[in-house]
Design goal:
The chain has 5 helices and 10 strands, in the order E-E-H-E-H-H-E-E-H-E-H-E-E-E-E. Helix 1 packs parallel to helix 3. The radius of gyration is 16 Å and the shape is globular. It has 187 residues and is α/β, with parallel strands linked by helices. InterPro entries: DHFR-like_dom_sf (IPR024072), RibDG_C (IPR002734), Riboflavin_Biosynth_HTPR (IPR050765). Keywords: Oxidoreductase. It holds the Pfam family RibD_C. Its EC number is 1.5.1.3.
Length: 187
């Protein structure tokens, strides 16, 4: 059985994007950090995306075309391309990456079945889609990649109005001040 993991880069004040919708402040420019993120995702067999996160991540379908990419970036591109993707969108008419399928609605029972039928982990990516999974009690682990910046507002990592008891299972600090926190749900 796979675990469902919610993992995102956040500001210290808990935002995945600022009030202008920007998130470049969180791009991992540290090869050690990027390598650690690659390691965390190595067990993932399926990414669950909303439309906006999928469109952001499409970059990795063609990242090999960008000259002079560091090996750690090319490794992430390879991992991303080799992983199944399920895009939840009412507005997209098709998807343009390999190993990707489109579904119209987030279905908690379908995610439960995916978790039960796989030996790999799954991630739910993007705070809006993750909020649905959190409210349904589906998220087994939270990976918060905390950057040393305050953005003062925007889109929050955690949804409003939920209570989940967590156990800290790992933390790792990086030279640039980023801290990766891993929590397990107590459910």
């Amino acid at each position: 059985m796979g675990k469902l993991v919610y993992s995102m880069i956040t500001s210290l004040d808990g935002y995945v994007e600022d009030a202008n919708g920007e998130f470049a402040w969180g791009a991992p420019d540290d090869e050690e950090l990027h390598g650690h993120i690659n390691e965390l995702a190595a067990s993932v067999g399926t990414f669950l995306y909303g439309r906006r996160m999928y469109e952001t991540m499409l970059y990795w379908e063609t990242a090999y075309d960008v000259p002079d990419q560091p090996p750690v970036v090319l490794e992430w591109a390879r991992q991303w391309q080799a992983t199944d993707k399920v895009v939840h969108s009412r507005t997209l008419t098709d998807v343009s990456s390999a190993r990707t399928r489109l579904v119209r609605e987030f279905d908690p029972d379908a995610v439960r079945r995916l978790k039960a039928e796989t030996d790999h982990d799954l991630t739910v990516d993007g705070p809006d889609l993750a909020a649905q999974a959190i409210r349904a009690g589906l998220v087994d682990e939270y990976h918060q990649i905390v950057c040393p910046v305050l953005v003062g507002g925007g889109k929050r990592f955690f949804p409003e109005g939920v209570h989940v008891d967590l156990d800290l299972i790992d933390e790792r600090r990086f030279a640039g001040g980023v801290v990766v926190l891993r929590y397990a749900s107590k459910h």
